[in-house]
Structure formats: C-alpha cells, structure tokens
Amino acid sequence: MRKYILISVLFAGALFSNGCSKSDELVPANKSVLREYVLPPASFMTPDERAVIDERRDEYNSIL
To answer: Which domain of life is it from (predicted)?
Structure first.
C-alpha cells in the first residue's frame, strides 16, 4: 500500500512540476484596443403604450 501511495505522490509531483514549464502559452494582451460600451439613449413610453402595459399587469395580477 505504501508503494502505491509513493508512486502516486511521485507521479503527481512530476505532473505539477511539468505543468508550468511554458509561461508564454497565453496570447499576449492587446492594450491598444479599448472597449467602451455605449448605452442606447433611453426611450420613454407614450401614454398609450403605458396604458397597454398597465392593462396587462392588472390582468396578470387578477389571475394570481
């Protein structure tokens, strides 16, 4: 049993020590591209649209 534990510890150590050998695996960061997200302008509902929404909300709440 000790033999299997020793072998597994040695195997895990070899795996971990070889896992970080290449530090340049990732793509280099591109700092020239800036991402600025612009929100669309807010659009307000007309009274007719608001009335439709209120009707649907009232219908939904009456079912509950």
So the answer is: Bacteria
Structure tokens belonging to residue 45 = 């509902």
Three-state DSSP state, 48: helix
The pTM of the full predicted model, rounded to 2 decimals, is 0.37
- Angstrom CA distances, 38 to 16, 35, 43, stand at 44, 10, 15
19 — pLDDT class (breaks 50, 70, 90): low
Q: Are 53 and 45 in contact (CB under 8 A)?
A: yes
* C-alpha 52: how far from chain center: 35
What's the CA gap between 58 and 5, in Å, rounded?
68
